[in-house]
Design a protein that fits this description.
The structure is a homotrimer.
Chain A lengths: L10 H17 L10 E6 L5 H12 L3 E6 L7 E2 L12 E2 H11 L2 E5 L7 H6 L1 H9 L4 E3 L7 H15 L6 E6 L9 H12 L3 E5 L8 H14 L2 E5 L2 H5 L4 E5 L13 H6 L8 H5 L5 E3 L12 H4 L6 H20 L4
Parallel strand pairs in A: 1-2, 1-5, 3-4, 5-6, 7-8, 7-10, 8-9, 10-11
Helix pairs in contact in A: 1-6, 1-13, 2-13, 3-5, 6-7, 6-13, 7-8
Chain lengths: ~325, ~325, ~325
């Protein structure tokens, strides 16, 4: 594995192997396995867990991290090929990426999509420029298409609660929000759960379809892992028998709904709020959410503060999976 | 001591003990006493000394620190219980605090008060949420009620200049400003000086009373330490015989003066500027201020640049007291 | 060498010596030569390479760095002597600098000029306040007058490509931009190249003269090193025989052109874009630029993406020269 930016970099056996090692290292910490290593962290978008958990993983492993906020103390970056750069972005990623690759042993990048064209976002242009130009391993801290470290942390949480995720019924349910959000997190839960062999049910209102390329990829993983993927607009049907409920807001399918119409389409589904009744429709489930979560807009207080919630464990597990991934990228011969 | 967020966490003997150790370690540095420890630093407000001195204390002790600026690269945080989170704050402290507590060995937090209700500020809701939810030790980098590391650094500076602070006459004088400032720093000087046995004189214009709960707490410490606390509007009387002059701007008592009237009430007392004549009314005093200071608004150039000023030593002493406190919180069995 | 803020702190033999050591350490890394050392980095202006390369130099040497962004999480700083501080800058550098000097073993500072008066900028008031007040070694991360670490990185790049820089013909050519930029980078290339013995040709449109004090200093270095410095408005003549082309945008000479007229004066010279024809007018040259570069405004894509470009190596070399300079400042007896 040269880079880790998509679940495809691991594949089904790789997902299994990372989770096994993360569970082991959560019990028996690995010591200074990253000594002398320097991670360059490049943020095009805000963060809390991602920033803290990546930096903690490097520091606790005996390494170090540089944190760079694009446009905030650091020059804004242009990414369009051939641009006449006479606007507010004084530096191009064609320079910035290889330069940072000269200072650091690996680069971590967060770069959200523009949310105007699902196909453009799924093609992940900025993330792929990092892969092409960094000269060192690249790890995703969420890009337009996926947030793969989140997906693996989700699976680690399921493994901790259910030991075996093979044929485990889990529901990813759409949730309301005040604005369209990226699809990277639902994509990654879907891909990771399919790779982990879960019986994945995706449920959302009409017009909020996930990207067809990601759905097809998840079907491939399910075939290989012995899991399954189904999609339905009938939330109740999806929840029946589910042992885990994963709530997440995301924006409409851009093939069906224009950016101008998106807010109204989202607002029409306020009743998709995930509350205690939703959990009751599943089978003694655990509750997951990647955070940040808008309380009482996406998810009710009673769910987040209730006994089913595993959201804090899930956030902690970001640290544990990332420690394994950073180890594999930075010590390829270990 | 599980947390250190208020002078009450130390009490009179604890204040003495921290100062003794800080003086000792200022001469004989403790080496890598924080090796393997990671401090999560959460700023809701700006900083210079606090950020640099806490980070320096962790790094020089062989540990590490994560610095997170809320709302600046990090999601803005909601703190109201039961809020419907449809505004500009996408994450709640109910999630953010315990998550950060999973990544770090201790959390440091800076959270100023809203300055609208002195009682609400003295109750310190955000700081107390950190204590309740972090799952790891919490240390204050200034909250609505107190700035206790500043108070201890102030006392360390007095100890260096006068050896013994028992019955030392010291004056805390109000100073003008362009706007209402929090009362945390004057509260902490008052509490720390009372705990250190000083003869504390507080002087300010009418309507600028400190919080009655803090005053009562300071009286309790003075009784235990053999010190005293008096409050007067007569600055000249307060200064007579004082060996230290501590200047600080703070806003009006919200029980007496509305937020709308506060600027005019402050502007009416421009003559409280601390200049050479003020120092001359004391008895060969040292001059203290927590910094930042607005030159020629709060304090005249002649005072800050004069031989009585100890403000740089005082800032350095932040490092020395914090190193001791971090040691006690992070190595409870040492 | 107590501080390193200007090429004058090294002089001609010092420039040679730093480059020799940087070349050696680029091949044989020095290990934990900065163990236990803490660098305080103070930014009044944005950065990418400078921030990352200085922090990397400290961390890879076993030391640590504090990064402080003035006005961004850190109080804004006043620098005017005698100011009545009733504006938006709550802290004076008279306090901030010595305080930071108490926490760190050295201070690095970036402080651009105001671009209103070339003589005021060449006098470097903020940088010189750091030298006077820090109490610890100061290193420049670019100030109003010079960007000396950039100049040394430029020379290291020439040394790598040509082995010997003595009498090497190099052209510094002005380039267009969307606004006036500081002269620190062209000043530092000029001074460094003169000290390294190059045959330096400076070319720019009329009205864009570099500072006469810097030109005179460069002539002095050229006399000592055996190099030369010439200035011409005839770019073609400058380029003839040049083995290196250094492109850089800078603002007009403030003695000749007012700030109001500057944008129009710059816009009148769009034809100074550095494109493939410019390189073809030199003699199989390498191409240098300090970055960030506005593609197709300053320099054409074909140049930056072409085989002559050394801009990524040049940026990497920032790390190598800074590592040597930090070593000399922080280990003066080594």
């Amino acid at each position: 594995m040269k880079h880790f930016t998509h679940i495809a970099d691991l594949g089904v056996p790789g997902v299994q192997s990372v989770l096994d090692q993360a569970l082991h290292w959560k019990r028996y910490a690995p010591g200074a396995h990253l000594a002398g290593k320097l991670l360059g962290m490049v943020f095009f978008n805000p963060s809390l867990r991602t920033r803290a958990s990546f930096e903690a993983a490097m520091l606790r492993g005996g390494g170090n991290a540089l944190v760079l906020d694009v446009g905030n103390g650091v020059w804004k970056l242009e990414d369009r090929t051939g641009a006449i750069m006479d606007g507010d972005r004084p530096e191009h990623i064609k320079e910035a990426i290889p330069v940072l690759g000269r200072y650091a042993d690996a680069l971590a990048v967060r770069t959200f999509g523009a949310l105007l064209d699902d196909d453009a976002d799924a093609a992940d242009p900025v993330l792929n420029a990092f892969r092409a130009l960094a000269g060192v391993p690249v790890i995703s801290m969420e890009s337009a298409r996926e947030h793969p470290c989140q997906g693996l942390a989700d699976m680690l949480t399921l493994r901790e609660n259910f030991e075996d995720t093979h044929r485990l019924p889990v529901t990813l349910t759409w949730a309301p929000h005040i604005k369209p959000l990226p699809k990277a997190v639902p994509h990654s839960f879907l891909l990771s759960a399919a790779a982990a062999g879960c019986e994945v049910r995706v449920t959302h209102p009409p017009g909020f379809e996930l990207h067809p390329g990601v759905l097809a990829e998840a079907q491939d993983y399910a075939r290989e892992s012995g899991g399954s993927v189904t999609v339905t607009h009938d939330r109740k049907a999806a929840l029946a028998g589910s042992r885990a409920v994963y709530a997440k807001a995301w924006g409409p399918d851009t093939h069906q709904v224009s950016a101008a119409d998106a807010p109204a389409r989202i607002a029409a589904h306020e009743d998709w709020l995930v509350d205690a009744a939703v959990l009751a429709a599943a089978q003694d489930p655990v509750f997951l959410h990647c955070l940040p979560v808008r309380r009482n807009v996406e998810v009710a207080d009673a769910v987040l503060d209730g006994k089913a919630s595993r959201v804090i464990d899930e956030a902690e597990n970001r640290f544990h999976v990332q420690r394994v991934l950073l180890h594999r990228l930075l010590n390829p011969d270990a």
